[in-house]
Amino acid sequence: MDPYLLRKLNTERAARRAVIHLTDLGDGRDRVVREGDPVAGPLGAAVESAFRSGKSAIVAAEDRNFFLNVHLPPARIVVIGAVHISQALAQMAKVAGFDITIIDPRTAFATEERFADVDLVADWPEDVLPARPLDAYTALVAVTHDPKIDDFPLSQALSTGCFYIGALGSRKTHARRVERLKALGHSDSEIATISAPIGLDIGAASPAEIAVAILADIVAHLRRRPLLGAVS
Prior knowledge:
This is XdhC family protein. InterPro entries: MoCofactor_Util/Proc, XdhC_Rossmann_dom. It comes from Shinella kummerowiae. The protein has 232 residues and is an alpha/beta fold. The strands form two sheets. It has a five-stranded parallel sheet, sandwiched between helices. The chain folds into two domains: 69 residues, no CATH class; 148 residues, NAD(P)-binding Rossmann-like Domain (Rossmann fold, 3-Layer(aba) Sandwich), CATH 3.40.50.720.
């Protein structure tokens, strides 16, 4: 690979931005395509599909063959609240290939005994997230039921464009949450992106079932997410 392209590729990956190293297998010409860069025609459709799936592949377009080497940032889940749902979700997320972090300032809940081998941070989200910022490849799951803990990370998730934002609570609870987020300057359209009640509607009752519903919702949002910019 050309050293310039290699530097560009590594810069994008270090910044947790999605890129594809696209190579024409006929003449060897290559380039780095960032998510949102315009690529026309059938090749553009293949690029869009690759950004969604994260799978590298050889594709045929315009009577030529191209190799699409896809580099997506590892999708991660940040959970606000070290509750029973979080315990189940942490184990399921690992199986599904997600990195997961649990944040909760309540030290009675955020214990290593309850979250063995999990990235657990017993501190306030407003103290944690500046050093570990959310981004477009982060799913934010808020499950404490406590506005003092949940509202800041929810607001941050809306501002940074997390691919999934979910919040536990009844419709009445969420209506009050909406008003608080509006007071923080968020629009109706932004707030409407929050999955609340959280997770897919599968009739979940137990913490483990709710965790299944949340993880399924996260996967659906990841694979169907709007791409940054527009690939046409």
